[in-house]
Amino acid sequence: MMKQFKTLLIATIxxxxxxxxxxxxxxxxxxxxxxxTKMPAILDAQKQLQKLGETYSAxxxxxxxxxxxxxxxxDAEAATQSDAINQTRQTEVQDxxxxxxxxxxxxxxxxxxxxxDLMKPILEKVKASIAKVGxxxxxxxxxxxxxxxxxxxxxxxxxVKKDLGF
Length: 166
Hints:
This protein is mainly alpha-helical. It has helices spanning about 1-25, 30-40, 40-75, 85-135, 155-165; strands at about 25-30, 140-145. The chain has a two-stranded parallel ribbon. The radius of gyration is 32 Å and the shape is rod-shaped. The model is unreliable at about 20 (pLDDT under 50).
């Protein structure tokens, strides 16, 4: 009876030990920041965004200069103009200020939209590559190393870069 109990106990321990080993997931990590900062498509997207930002900035600066020039002119001429003309000019300047503010807000929204439009396919490509490499190497989970306190394990960053062609 005791011998059967020992055999049953050993079998039970072996069974649960095997289950524990099988339950452990294979985990690797990848440095998404490193991939994203060195990826040629990201660099191209950043150049496009910078160029668009510079265009918006130049247009904004032109509008502000026109606004400041009008204010200066109207201030200098205010004493020699009628109240009705000064009131019209004040309304014109307020409208210009409003248009400048709207332009700046719209330019910022357009830049954010353009960034999203450019980045979305790139991010999807990186995510697909990480999944492809992770599955090919037999990992169940691939974590971003930037979010980890300890990255002591397989690093797939170089493999993902290779898969992406850089």
